[in-house]
Amino acid sequence: MIRVNDIAFVAYPVTDKQRARDFYEGALNLKQSMGSDFPEGLFWIEYDLGAGALALSNFWKPSGQPGHSGPSAALEVENFDETVAVLKERGVSFTMEPLETPVCHLVVIHDPDGNSIFIHKHKTDRGSAAHTCST
Asked: Helices (H) and strands (E) in the chain — how many of each?
């Protein structure tokens, strides 16, 4: 059985890291809680907001660009492995196979309209200092 408990994060694709940080940190006064840089200029930034987080990344294209996929939500599930198995049994389209990071497990699926949805499971209690996830 699939049990979604929360929204772990909402992720927005951005094209320019500094411009995005200037807006979210300058205009909106958000405080970065986590940031990672990856090969080929890829990045992932998170801002903790309440029980979840707002993530910014250039791993995929923003809405309005050719080949775009727009924003995505991450659904926090009770049992990651069981959820993945049920989704596969149901023939759900996977964009990314399960990935384990130091702090979470995640996979990306598509809904019938092609919208990306992260299926996510934190390894530690959400109240801990390092609860955010990076890909």
From this structure: 2, 8
Residue 29 backbone class (left: φ over 0; alpha: ψ -120 to 50; beta: rest): left
Tokens 């996977």: give the residue: 94
Secondary-structure class of domain 4-122 per CATH: alpha beta
Residue 68 pLDDT > 70: no
Residue 66 pLDDT level (bands cut at 50, 70, 90): low
Residues paired with 34 in a beta bridge: 46
Q: Which conformational region is residue 55 in: left (phi greater than 0), alpha (psi within -120 to 50 degrees), or beta?
A: beta
What pTM value is reported for the model?
0.71
β-pairing, 116-122 vs 72-77, is: parallel
Which tokens hold the place of 96? Answer: 């990314």
| Cα dihedral 51, 52, 53, 59 in deg (nearest 10) | 160
Residue 39 backbone phi and psi in degrees, to 5: -55, 160
Whether 8 and 118 have beta carbons less than 8 Å apart is answered as yes
Under a CB-based contact definition with an 8 Å cutoff, are residues 15 and 56 in contact? Answer: no
